[in-house]
From TrEMBL:
InterPro entries referenced in this protein's UniProt entry, alphabetically: Homeodomain-like_sf, HTH-type_Tx_Regulator, HTH_TetR, Tet_transcr_reg_TetR-rel_C_sf
Source organism phylogeny: Bacteria, Pseudomonadati, Bacteroidota, Flavobacteriia, Flavobacteriales
DNA-binding region: 27-46
Species this chain originates from: Chryseobacterium vrystaatense
A Pfam match: TetR_N
Designated name of the protein: Transcriptional regulator, TetR family
Keywords: DNA-binding
One Gene Ontology term of the molecular function aspect: DNA binding
SUPFAM superfamilies recorded: Homeodomain-like, Tetracyclin repressor-like, C-terminal domain
Ranges where the HTH tetR-type domain occurs: 4-64
Amino acid sequence: MHFSHTRARIIQSGEKLFARYGISNVTIRQIAKESGVNSSTIYYYYQSKEDLFEHIVNHIELVFGEDFSIAVEKNDPLEQVSELCWLFFDKYNQNINPVTLFLDERIKSNQNERVKKTIRKVENTINEALEKILDNCRDLGYLKSDLSNLVYIKMIFGILVETILFQKRSGSLLKNENQTHQFLTFRNEAIHLIKGILMVK
């Protein structure tokens, strides 16, 4: 999607400040200063900081949705989950600030309803992809426990998030080709753990 240079700077500044301080601690004036524009310029494009936040997170939801649909097209459900995990990690490396923003805001309890609704849209996109994979696993005779898909989704998403947090703590925020062997190994182990959970018969 193409935006004017000014609007692109506003979006990038919003991503950076929201990810660093949280949406509740950032003002339109701060975003204007960071992006080098007047507050009135931001209001020309967005009615509020929540409007800007929604735009940023909706883009992540769109990116996840398009790529996760590709993962679900794989024939084997274990290949599906492996592909989905790699896509999740890759999208983080390509969109560090907005994905960090999503992960941080989803665990807060003091957002307004509009922010919560925006976060839920992204969660639903991820959950729907995982739900399809889990159903495929059950069709092939896996996951015979009484645990619901929701429990498995929470376990899988928890592992994905913890892997991202490990990357943040280690400072390994580079593109795939430059990432450390340590983090690549950790990502592989995380995916292996998830596949192990799904293979229980």
